[in-house]
Structures are given as C-alpha cells and as structure tokens.
TrEMBL record, chain A:
This is Flagellar basal-body rod protein FlgC. Keywords: Bacterial flagellum, Cell projection, Cilium, Flagellum. It is found in: Bacterial flagellum basal body. Residues 106-150 form the Flagellar basal-body/hook protein C-terminal domain. It holds the Pfam family Flg_bb_rod. One of its GO terms (biological process) is bacterial-type flagellum-dependent swarming motility. The lineage of its organism: Bacteria, Bacillati, Bacillota, Bacilli, Bacillales. InterPro entries: Flag_bb_rod_N, Flagellar_basal_body_rod_CS, Flg_bb/hook_C_dom, FlgC. It comes from the Bacteria. Residues 7-35 form the Flagellar basal body rod protein N-terminal domain. NCBIfam families: FlgC. The basal body constitutes a major portion of the flagellar organelle and consists of four rings (L,P,S, and M) mounted on a central rod. The rod consists of about 26 subunits of FlgG in the distal portion, and FlgB, FlgC and FlgF are thought to build up the proximal portion of the rod with about 6 subunits each.
TrEMBL record, chain B:
It comes from Sporosarcina ureilytica. Keywords: Bacterial flagellum, Cell projection, Cilium, Flagellum. The basal body constitutes a major portion of the flagellar organelle and consists of a number of rings mounted on a central rod. This is Flagellar basal body rod protein FlgB. It is found in: Bacterial flagellum basal body. Structural component of flagellum, the bacterial motility apparatus. Part of the rod structure of flagellar basal body. Residues 12-38 form the Flagellar basal body rod protein N-terminal domain. One of its GO terms (biological process) is bacterial-type flagellum-dependent swarming motility.
C-alpha cells in the first residue's frame, strides 16, 4: 500500500459513478428508440441497461494470488469497479397504440423501450450523491497528505 | 538516555492508525453502491498494543495439539458485522462514514501538530534555548 492508495480508491469510485451516469444518460436518451436492434428482420426497441458494481480485487485472479501467498491478504481493498453492464430483460416493453407508426404491428401497437424516466432520474440522483461523497473523501485525504508534508517543518 | 523517548513512536503509531482508517473510509464510501459489500472498520487498540502481545495462543496440554492458524489479515482491519442490511445487502452507513472521515482528519492534524511541537522542543534544547 502506497501513500496514494486511498486517493486511487476514491478515483476508482469516481470513475465507476461517472460510468453509471453515462449508462443512465444513454437510457434516458433512448427513451423513445423503437429501433434498437434488428432481430430476425424485425426491429426491437432499445433495452434498458444496468450496471453492476463490485469491490476491486475480488476476481478469481486476485483471489488465487492471495491463496498462493503472492500478495498480502486482508488488504484494505482497491476500491470499486463496474463488473458488467447488462441489459434489463425482466422489465417488459411498453405497448403503445399508434397505428400510424412505421413499427406498429398488425393490431396497431408499437413496442416502446422499457425505460422508466422516473426510475432513471432516481438512479441519476443516487449516482450524483455518491460522486459528491467521494469528492469529499478525496479532499479530506488530500489535505491529510498535505498536512503530512508539514511534519518536521 | 534516550533522546526521543516514547512520545514520537506513540505518535507514529497514531499516524499509522489514522492513515489506515483514512484508507478504510475511502474504501467504504467507494463501495456505497456495491451490492452485498460489508463495511470495514479499524481497531484502534491493535495499533497501539504490540501485535505480538495481542496474538491469540493455543493452550497445549498435549504435544499433538495444533497451534491456531496464523492470522493472515492485516492488523486492525476487520469486517463490521453489526450493521443494518440495506435491501441490496450493502452495509455502508454513509452518515457514519462521513462523520468518521471528519473526525479522522482532525485527529490526524492534531497528531501532526503534536509531532511538530515535539520536534520544536528538541530543536529548542539543541540550540540551548537561544
């Protein structure tokens, strides 16, 4: 562990939260996208994407390194990372009646993306607050390091 | 006679504790949105008492008895088990972490000030009070 360990930890969190915001932006931008992907010659609407976070250093490789004693176990941790961006296949698409729409089916219904703007906004607020909290931690650690430079002056 | 005495090494241990605590708080707040993450804590005592003194020893009444396995965790850092679960299994209490962060910062500053005071005293003695 170096002296900048905690700053790197916070930096990883800032990166993760920013990526979360990017994914939420993408969801909100595609709230009306009916042509997200071509499947068997048919257009499918955009699928809402979600991110999964996990602490860094819990992958198989680092667990193995720990088990064979290469690295010191019980390390405080290396921060957080996005383990995957997955598509939300559980929430159903919304059906909207609009016979004039080019993508409407025989009954006149159009499949709209499963993006709920309300839910995305709530997630966006959560990501923003987490980002702010991490900025606070970053500043606190920075001032502690600056104070350490004053030792012996 | 020792020139530096015990004070400086005590302060050093305090600074080590405080720096580790800073790292742990950073780690906890970084993982505030991670499902099933368990918050970590730092034990003050283990940083002050010599690690050797605090080690758990097996009491052997028979030579075939085995020792307790060596603890391979970093001294003083442990998972905090007594917390409320959030619905996603995350155990980070943001308010508490922020409070700890502020407290830790002040504590660190106080230790550095004290250390500087100690050095200034020595400087004063070396210069003969001039």
């Amino acid at each position: 562990m170096g002296i900048f360990h905690s700053l790197n930890t916070t930096a990883s969190a800032l990166t993760a939260q920013r990526l979360r915001m990017d994914v939420i932006s993408s969801n909100l931008a595609n709230v009306d996208t009916t042509r997200g992907r071509m499947v068997n010659g048919e257009w499918q609407p955009y699928r809402r994407k979600t991110v999964t976070l996990q602490p860094k250093g819990t992958q198989f490789s680092s667990m193995l390194q720990m088990a064979i004693g290469k690295t010191r176990s019980g390390d405080v941790g290396n921060g957080v990372q996005i383990s995957r961006i997955s598509e939300d296949t559980e929430t159903p698409f919304k059906s909207v009646y609009d016979p004039s729409h080019p993508d409407a089916n025989a009954q006149g219904y159009v499949q709209m993306p499963n993006v709920d703007p309300l839910r995305e906004m709530v997630n966006l607020m959560s990501a923003t607050r987490s980002y702010e909290a991490n900025v606070t931690v970053f500043n606190a650690n920075k001032s502690m390091l600056m104070k350490a430079l004053e030792i012996g002056k | 006679m020792k020139l530096f005495g015990q004070t400086i090494s005590s302060l050093e241990r305090g600074l080590n504790y405080s720096a580790t605590k800073g790292k742990v708080i950073a780690q906890n707040i970084a993982n505030v949105d991670t499902p099933n993450y368990k918050a970590k804590r730092v034990k003050f005592k283990e940083f002050l008492v010599d690690a050797q003194m605090n080690e758990l020893r097996a009491y052997k009444t028979e030579h075939k008895h085995m020792d307790f396995p060596e603890r391979n965790v970093q001294p003083g850092v442990f998972d905090y088990s007594n917390f409320r679960y959030r619905h996603d299994g995350n155990g980070v209490d943001m308010d508490k972490e922020q409070a700890n962060l502020a407290e830790n910062q002040i504590y660190y500053n106080a230790l550095v000030d004290r250390l500087n005071g100690k050095f200034n005293t020595l400087q004063n003695v070396i210069k003969g009070g001039r």
